[in-house]
Write a structure and sequence with these properties.
By secondary structure, the chain is α/β, with parallel strands linked by helices. The chain is built from 18 helices and 16 strands. Strands 1, 2, 3, 4, 5, 6, 7, 10, 11 and 14 form a ten-stranded mixed β-sheet that branches. Strands 8-9 form a two-stranded parallel ribbon. Strand 3 and strand 4 form a beta hairpin. Helix 11 packs across helix 12, helix 11 crosses helix 15 and helix 14 runs antiparallel to helix 15. It binds zinc ion (2 copies). The site of one zinc ion has 8 residues, from loops.
Length: 422
């Protein structure tokens, strides 16, 4: 079977997270989105563990269920050098053991969702490995709290301790991460890191697993590529839309080339804010290969449907007006991924003509993408010619999309997906 899983989110016990991040809300919104599996996130927090146990049924040691949505036990920890790691636990008892192990090194493990732990990456990985917990770097390339802001290689960070996957983060995709040879044997995870259950957050990145059942054990095998289990598709935000894609000022968001930033000593000459190195530029610094591993699953670049709708009708992404149209599409076609990828233009047009045109433009690589950077998400714009054209005129329309500094080679989703699994 194939199942879509988003394994990294945060609960209402983490800082800056929506109060709506509850287990029942997660289950309900996961169903809307078309996800079958959600990582609990924050499971090291005892209150979140309690909430999970109250609202779900146990399937097996490492798998819980509510209304047909499976939950796996996951968490994120911050190490002594402010690097984040994702953990996936085989059971509640290993969650509790890990909590006990980390307690002496953490002030906030009982109160925070994402605890700060005064141990190195290698020490945390050693404990995880001893307990049979899967571990890998979270959003590996982002400039504040990730592995590559601190180290130049996995080896330097983990000192040879085993890691089982690498999380790409919103500002990178598989093609970018594969520029580093040491990643080629690792499985990539594409997770949302959602702080709210809203449709443009939860499941904005997910992994499509080929497994026998939606359980921890099957997921573990897939991550380790054993017995035919595997990830067949990573789907995620177009990396240009990520908050840290290009190098930019973290206060006024003005973009800089890495050379300019260096000249300005990483201080914005316009406002005095700190310039943060973009994931795109960080990867180019580290890149040591042009080759791709043969078993790398395809990466599908997405823009959240709610954001496409918001762009078309000119309303905020969290407004009622956007939600109403979003729900109409979901009711008609069952899941967001089908709307974005599979349903033909004419079908979409029956629900909302203007949105249909924008989805078509995205599939064809004809939306204008203004890349994100410095902590500000990228933006999408619909070219005027497309806005004015009728559905019938679209296919023959000549559209000039402005050139940008970085454009992915694969732009047409439809062309791309012909080779992808259903
Ligand atoms: Zn993080
Ligand atoms: Zn600035």
């Amino acid at each position: 079977m194939q199942v879509d899983a988003d394994l990294h989110i945060h609960s209402r016990y983490s800082k800056a997270v929506s109060k709506a991040m509850t287990i029942p809300n997660l289950a309900e919104n996961a169903r809307f989105k078309g996800l079958g599996v959600v990582g609990t996130g924050d499971i090291l927090n005892p209150k979140w563990e309690e909430e999970l146990l109250r609202y779900t049924e146990k399937v097996d040691e490492g798998t819980y269920e509510r209304n047909g949505i499976r939950f796996l036990l996951t968490a994120e920890v911050e190490d002594s050098r402010r690097v984040h790691h994702v953990l996936i636990f085989p059971s509640i008892s290993t969650v509790r053991e890990m909590r006990k192990e980390l307690k002496g090194y953490s002030q906030d493990i009982d109160t925070e969702g994402r605890p700060r732990v005064n141990l190195s990456a290698a020490e945390i990985a050693d404990i995880a490995n001893e307990l049979g917990i899967l571990i890998g770097p979270a959003h590996a390339f982002t400039p504040w709290t990730a592995l590559y802001k601190e180290y130049n290689s996995l080896k330097e960070a983990y000192q040879g301790a085993k890691v089982h996957f690498l999380e790409l983060g919103l500002s990178a995709d598989s093609e970018m991460a594969d520029r580093i040879k040491a990643h080629h044997s690792l499985t990539y995870l594409s997770n949302s890191d959602a702080h709210s259950p809203m449709p443009h957050r939860l499941g904005r990145e997910f992994n499509r697993f080929e497994v026998r059942d939606a359980t921890f054990e099957e997921t573990r095998k897939a991550i380790l590529k054993r017995g035919g289990r595997k990830i067949v598709l990573n789907a995620g935000l177009d990396p240009r839309l990520g908050k840290y894609h290009l190098t930019a000022c973290s206060r006024c968001y003005r973009k800089y080339s890495p050379e300019e930033a260096m000249v300005f000593k990483w201080k914005c000459p316009k406002c005095g804010g700190r310039i943060k190195k973009g994931v795109h530029d960080r990867i180019l610094e580290l890149a040591d290969t042009e080759e791709r591993p043969k078993d790398r699953p395809p990466y599908l670049r997405l823009a959240p449907l709610a954001e496409i709708i918001a762009m078309v009708i000119g309303k905020g992404v969290e407004t009622k007006a956007v939600r109403v149209i979003w729900e109409r599409f979901l009711k008609e076609f069952g899941s967001e991924i089908r709307v974005l990828v599979d349903v033909p233009l004419e079908g979409l047009a029956e629900v909302h003509e203007e949105v249909a045109k924008a989805v078509w433009a995205y599939r064809e690589g004809k939306l204008i993408v203004i890349p994100g950077g410095g902590g500000k998400y990228g933006e999408i714009r619909l070219p005027e010619e497309i806005r004015k054209a009728s559905i019938a005129e679209l296919e023959s329309l000549e559209v000039e999309v402005p050139k940008e500094e970085y454009r992915p080679k694969q732009t047409s989703l439809m062309k791309f997906l012909r080779g992808a699994p259903k």
